[in-house]
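Crash report, auto-generated. Payload:
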Amino acid sequence: MSTRVELDNSPILLAARVARAFGNAHRLAYAQITPDLTIANVSTNFHAIISNPANADDPIEGRRLDDIFYEFGGTEDTLDMIMKGQLPFFRLEDVNRVRPDGETVYLMFQISPLSDAQTEAGLLLIVEDVTEPAIMRQSLTQERNELRLVRNRLKAANTDLGRLNRLKSFIVTMAAHDLRSPLTTIRSYADILAEDLQGKVEQDYIEFLMTIRSQSDRLSRLITDLLDLDMIEQGGLSLKPEPTDMREVVEEAYGLMAPNGALHRLTMTNDISKEPVIVNGDGQRISQVIVNLISNAIKYTPEDGRVHVTLTIKDGHAVTTIVDTGNGMTEQQLHKLFQVYYRTEEARDSNIVGSGLGLFIVKTLVEAHKGYIKVNSKRGEGTRFAVYIPLASQPELA
Amino acid sequence: MAVIQKKICLLGEFAVGKTSLVRRFVENRFDDKYLSTIGVKISRKSLSLDDNTVNLLMWDLAGGDNYQGVQSGYLRGAAGALIVCDLTRAETLSAYERYLSQLREVNKNAYVVFLANKVDLVDRRAISDKELKDVASSLGGQVYLTSAKSGINVELAIETLAKKLVG
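Recovered output after restart:
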């Protein structure tokens, strides 16, 4: 036996008052549901709020709850628990409904006891149109999910790249080691033959042997550069820092390269500090930097040009400069100079050999010493590289 | 002929294709555009199974993530569930345990079928057959490789679940 409740004199009125107090009365509809789950009594805006797909003129009162709201199909036990006071309410949020005009609306359904005193009165169904905030939430959810998908794809791509990188590293290391041994043999035999055959064969043949030797050296340098590059890319670059006098490093590098400069008909000069210039660094790696820069200066300076090497102390740094009177570079070229595999158009078009790895390695090695490089260059006038490496900290004076 | 109504919930991580599976099953169409579902979208489809008409209420629930599941209210009254993963995203597979446990809290006897969706994206597959078999044995239910895009196995999987529910 169910009782029809007059809305104006029931707790539904209270719900309406609450709705008005919150300023959302126009978005709230409510209905009385009898204990046998029949819709008994609805607010005037019920049709409009629930987006009833059926004809708006069809009466709702007298229909079964799950006939109008299939959202409640299968929830009979739950609704029974509410009627018996075993569950305070049942709520469904953000229920998507498509209006007859195709527009999606979002509704919130809440069912609670109509009256604590009159269980025979049944249930109070409140329906709220939450479309406005739901659309905002949908938009945020959409963006969040799309970002997550992109992040997941990037993560997967990164994993793939890491795998490929390790494979590449393995191949480079294997190839480099396999190439090095025969190269050493070729170079050694070329040396022996050149020495033994000196004066016994035509000079042309000796020069052929010298070419074999120089090309072997070139390949060997390339292999060293590739191994260094791989080490840098794998994050495996390690230094053996110790107090190092930059005078010795720069003098040795200059001494090694000066004959080469003379061969290219260049004037090689230097101005190296007479005082000790101590840095905390890996002497072998710093030497590699200086030799590479002097070697480049020699390679890219035309005959009769000059290469000048200096070592000074400035602002707590050992400053080594290598200045040449070569062809110089444009601003654009300077910006790309330290990129891996970068070579200027002129360098690529010339017969000057190079891999485009050297300056990348140089920069990495200098930065590994907490130093930096400055480059100034002007087309047709030459280039100046300045390598700054911090001086070793001095013990405080007693 | 008896008319039986059954509620089925679709559960799974976001963007695994739950809405697309329902759209394929109910409307036999597919839309490539991804639109996140919030809350729940309920669709109906009637099936004739033996001497019965089964009205399936398909509850397409908003996809969760590692941190949230679904509201238990949505699961009340569910006779069965389709738990869905995306074959191109490995992380969507392991989530099934969370959804299963949420479902079991509300309905211990709900029958579950597992759908490994997007089988058409062969080159991007990130979940192996063995991993799916492990899920199947852990669920004690069936696993179907589906594609909402091509429609492969969608009807078969849902009809199999429907038969279990009325059987």
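Post-recovery validation: The mean pLDDT of chain A is 86.
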